[in-house]
Amino acid sequence: MSKSGLLSRRGFLAASAAATAGVSVSFAQSEAMQARLIPQAISALPNLSGQARPFTNAERQARIERARGLMLENKIDAIVLANSTMSSVYFANMRLGGGERLWALVIPAKSDAFVVCPAFEEGRAREMLNGGPLTPNADVLTWQEDQSPYEGIARVLTQRRLGSGTIGLDENMKFVFADGIRAAMPHAHMVSATPVTAGCRMIKEPHEIECMRLACRATLLVYRAVAQSVHPGMTNGDVERLVDLAYSRVGFRGDASLNIDEFTALPHGSRQPQTLKEGSILMLDDGCTVEGYNSDITRTFVLGKPTAKQAAVFDLVKKAQTAALHAARPGVLAADVDAAARKVIEDGGYGPGFAYFTHRVGHGIGLEGHEWPYFVKNDMYGWALAPQLKSGMTLSDEPGVYIKGEFGVRIEDELLVTENGAELLTPQSPSLEDPFGDIGA
């Protein structure tokens, strides 16, 4: 492991103080000072941002048409997407957000979409619409602070002969919004919009997969550079700051949590301060986004030489990840993929059930870090939509073994269901001593 120094805020403050005192520190000199403080492995990271391609209006319009097809199949007359849902980004490139004030994107099956927003936000709404897939036909329905936005939605839908229709409400909509729409449309039938939103978003297009591959590659390069830069005495906070610095070099927004030694036995870690020492086991988790699409990768490795028990657990977890990969293919129940990985871990002595492998084997991923479907028995979130896997689905494959008070091991990569099976979007981790293998430059 490299023993390069950390990027030091104190160093920058000293430079600023010197300049204030009249000492001449040029911008170029300041940049050079910063460069010397960056570990070499991080400084050498390539900027990958130029490889990302933005999504086009034509792609989003095609998604809207697919949604309308699913509305007809599911006998839904219109869907209402409110406030912070990522589905409005998926269909219209509109990030709606109004806190307690309702913003909504309404997409009817057989007529033009319209946007709902507070009256004082109309300019911002039209700015978001401008040049997007909904122009020039989308209306903006505004409401004043002393008016009901729900009655406005009801009025427009009634004008379109949908007052007694079936209206799909986004599953993440606030209760107060859903309840308000329901009260304003007493003759309508309210259902979940998930068969439409998830029905579209679960099956990734080639461009979406391209973005996720790039995000996964960026994350692995960042993790490797950080792993090459850590040394005993660093805290988890120090390492997380290195992660931030590394993502700024590759050109994407990302982050990671680091947990050390006994805290790796907590799947989502701890907020307690932790310090690296020789022989520590480390778990890096999280990812970045490319054009809105997420990576979510975990690498577990040791600062030095692993114990025999640690190495054996790693090998078992890797076999479980491989078993899930081999089980996944179109037509297979998502629950059976979890069962395949869980059996390997149970047969290896870390059972039964969730005793040591304490979570599902994976979750869907795309515009959100966790989305439909899920690799688990009795899936409460996606089973009704996707009991069987389909080509184009992307999910994490992340088995783990967590031994309380000692350590945990998790390996996580993104899995893509293909026409004939499945593949990982990143190379598997070879070992605790060589967590990255040959991932290239």
TrEMBL record:
Protein's UniProt name: Xaa-Pro peptidase family protein
PANTHER family: AMINOPEPTIDASE, AMINOPEPTIDASE YPDF
Entry-linked Pfam families: Creatinase_N, Peptidase_M24
Domain Creatinase N-terminal: 63-203
Residue intervals of the Peptidase M24 domain: 210-419
Stretch forming the signal peptide: 1-21
Record has Signal as a keyword: yes
KW Hydrolase (keyword) present: no
Coiled coil residues, start to end: none
Sorted UniProt keywords: Signal
